[in-house]
Design goal:
transmembrane, alpha+beta, single chain, 5-stranded antiparallel sheet, membrane, Type 4a pilus biogenesis protein PilO
Length: 207
Amino acid sequence: MSLNAEMRRLRDLDWRELDIKEAGIWPWSLQLLLCLVLLGVTFFAMHWYLAGPAKEQLDQVRAEEPRLIRDYRSKAAQAANLEAMREQMGVLEARMDTLREMLPSGAEIPALIDDITETALDNQLTIDYIRLRGTAAREHYVEQPFDIQVRGDYHRIAAFLAGVAGLPRIVTLHDMTLAPEGGDGQNLRLSMLARTYSYRQREEGGS
């Protein structure tokens, strides 16, 4: 059958009388058109059902791409500097160990008091008292305050303070009061609060 004859059949076709049950005797051009429409609908449905979520996921991955590239570059730079960072970490740990050694443990507090007493006696000072107070726990260390009162002339007291500051253990001096002792004004009385510190982790580990 020629194409012109088929087109005439389509023009003369009464669309209202079409019955799906008689689709086998419909004009072949109509059958072809319906097949194309059905194929298009099927393709669209498959694309919407299968390709749609995949495209959405692809868009999300593309949106994350700049951040992933930045993370990669940052980690690559860290990896390139890893050896230098390890060396710096080793230096910092060594410095931390040195500082920790300057913090007396609880068992070393009496020895520190003895060192302060010896420093006062070496400078020919009279010791009224060196009296411990209660400890105060901080986040990373334990604070041990103690009161000191000594008597002597100005230069010997100054030498005593310098000697305490030069001890191998950390001692900080606070609330210093210097008052004349006697009527001649030569001797002075020094009252002050001193503090030393213990590394808390070492204290807890050693208990």
